[in-house]
Amino acid sequence: MMKNLRALLMNEKGNVAVMLALSLTVLLGVTAMVVDVGRLYHEKRILQNAMDAAALSGAQGLVTSEVSAASIAKDLASKNSFPVSNSDLTITNKSIKVSRESTVPMTFARVFGIQEASVQAAAKAEIGLLKSAKRVTPIAIEYTAIPNETELKCENTGNHHGNCGYLDIDSNGASGLADKIINGTEIEVGTSVQTEPGQKWGPVEGAIETLISKDAGKSKCQQALTADYSCARVIVIPLIDSWDGANGKSSVKVVGLSAYWIDRLDEPKRIVGEFKDIVTSGEIGSTGPGNLYGVTLVE
Known about the structure:
Elements: H1 2-61, H2 66-79, E1 89-91, E2 95-105, E3 116-130, E4 132-136, E5 141-142, E6 167-168, H3 173-183, E7 185-188, E8 192-195, H4 201-214, E9 234-240, E10 251-266, E11 270-275, E12 278-279, E13 284-286, E14 292-297
């Protein structure tokens, strides 16, 4: 009787040892899965962020050329520790796609013979004309003026049926117009707006001088080639079809948005500068005309 009991206890201890060994094996497997899957997830996230950034930055370069877009995307991807080559890029005149694979060494999974695993990420960004903008200067110009026109406003209101390019966007006469020139307003392509007749040169001149003075000491803002949207003297202006039909305070339709770099004020009553392609944030989708662009991720 005692021998049988002793044998039974020994068998039970053996079963416990076997169960414990199996449990430890399962526990190690679960630990391996948690740790290594976590590493893969982390690598996938930072890889995706890098591809998103490379695509968005590269898309901005499409304003210049596809070659510029590729160079910008590759440069940023390298800075984020995920260099890409031309074979990783798919570029058109409107979009750029960046793809990359990354290999992650395993830790606990090596117990099961899994030495490494790969994650992939891709991002596609498009560039397009903006449908609306918030920092718009209420001085309109006919769309046929871009890209070669160098002056924003007219010298003789009679040429535009009493108008000189100004728009009345919830303003209060000359002082309201000057405030909107300095601080900007929001305008969407396709909307109709009222004109603000007259020269109003004193307040307008002061507002333009304020914009120019805000960029004092900013070397990149002093020439059109290097100026960007962070410069106060780079303004957004509405484009209209034509001043024909306008007579005094009238309604005109905004058909596009354009960026313009202010060079200087000249007499008599002249705002001189040049149009330039600019990329900034906003909703794309306008069919033009214009040279104010936005980029967005589409994949």
